[in-house]
Design goal:
Blueprint (H helix, E strand, L loop, with lengths): L3 E9 L9 E10 L6 H8 L7 H11 L4 H21 L4 E5 L9 H8 L4 E6 L2 H10 L6 E5 L5 H5 L2 H6 L7 E5 L11 H10 L6 E7 L5 H13 L9 H7 L4 E2 L5 E2 L23 E7 L3
Parallel strand pairs: 3-4, 3-6, 4-5, 6-7
Antiparallel strand pairs: 1-2, 7-10, 8-10, 9-10
């Protein structure tokens, strides 16, 4: 038996879509087994087909708070650019932590299109996401997916599948794209990242994106409440806090910047709906572990 709980969705309190005119309103009650999945919402935002009707409803409601659909697509665009950058830098193995449901563009597709010998291990806590990723990779011997909680780095690194496919004595790319914001301060996100980095060779890289309230104070506050209503803890962090997460590493230019400003390419704004920069509460960074 599942206990029903109240779920708060977001609607406009007036006619104009301005952040200061938002109101959180109880629209319905939802049983625990009916809650949307974060991975499903993200897939819907990207235009994929691995999501449920409740994921679509939640995605539309979340997008009414701020342009989260554009931010999801911006995050995926950063995945493509950062993976290409790392392959060009000589990286031939990736650990993608919090990878979610396979969607339109995935790490192995980007990397192996440039360097076919690239190996990729996807990690997610959602068994459905892992199962779907494995199905997609059934004919790809150089990529796999494993269950794992990113707050438990040792169990991920020491998993047989990761050890079989990845050589932790050689540089690799650690990807944390849109996931560290789901680690509370109590769970010490900087310590979590440090523990991952302790296991990888010098010359490895970390690529990360992270929600911020720096330019979206009220919309991000509303988004935090939205995620809380579906039993997901989300913590947007300010620029200085994101910088602290990669302290001790060597950020590549341009450092910790709004994701739309990370090595922009001509015409790419169309990929995230040409949303204005001041509406995109999203930081990105690529940083190298020193020798």
């Amino acid at each position: 038996m599942f206990l029903a709980r109240r779920v708060y969705y977001v609607k406009w309190a007036g006619d104009e879509p301005c952040s200061d005119r938002l109101a959180l309103t109880t629209l319905t009650s939802m049983a625990e087994d009916e809650k949307p999945a974060t991975a499903g919402i993200y897939d819907y935002m990207l235009g994929g087909d691995n999501h449920t009707a409740r994921d679509r409803i939640a995605g539309d409601q979340l997008n009414s708070v701020a342009p989260f659909r554009a931010m999801a697509r911006l995050n995926r665009l950063f995945l493509e650019k950062s993976v290409r950058f790392l392959v060009d830098a000589g990286i031939r193995q990736f650990l993608d932590v919090g990878s979610g449901i396979p969607s339109k563009v995935n790490v192995h597709e980007v990397a192996q299109a440039i360097a076919p010998d690239t190996r990729v291990v996807y990690v997610d806590y959602d068994p459905i996401a892992v199962a779907q990723t494995r199905e997609k990779l059934i004919t790809n011997p150089l990529a796999t997916a494993i269950n794992g909680d990113l707050r438990e780095p040792d169990s991920i690194i020491d998993s047989p599948a990761a050890r079989e496919l990845l050589d932790f004595d050689q540089p690799l790319g650690l990807l944390f794209l849109g996931v560290i914001q789901f680690i509370s301060d109590d769970d010490q996100p900087a310590e979590v990242l440090t523990r991952f980095l302790e296991h990888v060779a010098p010359g490895s890289y970390l690529a990360m994106t992270h929600f911020t309230q720096d330019n979206l104070e009220q919309p991000m506050a509303d988004a935090v409440e939205f995620f809380r209503s579906v039993n997901t803890f989300m913590v947007p962090r300010r620029h200085a806090e994101v910088v602290d997460l990669v302290r001790g590493l060597e950020p590549v230019a341009p450092g910790v910047v709004f994701t739309a400003c990370w090595r922009p390419e001509p015409g790419e704004a169309a990929a995230y709906d040409n949303v204005n920069l001041d509406e995109l509460g999203h930081y990105a960074v690529v940083a190298r572990k020193p020798e």
